[in-house]
Automatic annotation (TrEMBL):
Enzyme Commission number, as recorded: 2.3.1.-
Organism: Pseudonocardia tropica
Cited InterPro entries: Acyl_CoA_acyltransferase (IPR016181), GCN5-like_dom (IPR013653), GNAT_dom (IPR000182)
Keyword line: Acyltransferase, Transferase
Name the record gives this protein: GNAT family N-acetyltransferase
GO molecular function, one term: acyltransferase activity
Pfam families: FR47 (PF08445)
N-acetyltransferase domain ranges (all copies): 111-245
Enzyme superclass (EC): transferase
Amino acid sequence: MPDAPDRPDTALTDPVTSALRGRLAGFGATRGAAVRFDPEVSPFAALPLDADGHGSAGDWADLAALCAPGSEVVVVRAAAGPPRIPAGWELLRAFPGVQMDGAAVPGAAADGLVELGPSDRAEMAELAGRTRPGPWLARTAELGRYLGVRHDGRLVAMAGERMRIGGAGGAGATEISAVCTDPEFRGRGLARRLVDAVAAGIVARGERPVLHAAADNLGAIRLYGAMGFTLSRTMRFDLLRAPHR
């Protein structure tokens, strides 16, 4: 049975570990206490780190064993500062973020949205590549339900589900991700409609919607705040290079 924590608030402080030791176990690998997503799904990884970012040599070695030599990985955790990395690892980018809690967000269905599937993957990748909403890899779309907006047949906006954190139903949360709009169609409220609709699907399962954003993405933080999401904790999404061995 999955050994993810049952309490969503506990799981949300370490979402990658919770997802990969729980409902998304088939999308990654674990070794000891270290976890990482399949590199075609997500760059995210995690290992036990204390409040100052220190981890044991054994846990860092386990994470290195899950990574190709010299490959890049994003270590995710609730914290104010970057991890203290051991020799052989390289910190490429120290990336502060925030987690936003949608416990009070009911979501809302919207007209004009389409459910995206395997036949849409090439367009989804193209839109994500142009708008850069966050990591988008060959298998990212397999993680959950994605909705989009088409104009004259062309995909111009989308949003969907990424990490499934904690247990199912009231014990869990699902992250809304890949919220992006073609620059030509911004300012029309498409992102809000999509986030509301994805949130409604999450709430219908009895789960809590959550979001992550870069700490300096004040526009997105304001938008999500206006929708009822609240800032819950400081997060880190730090890009590291694994040892070359």
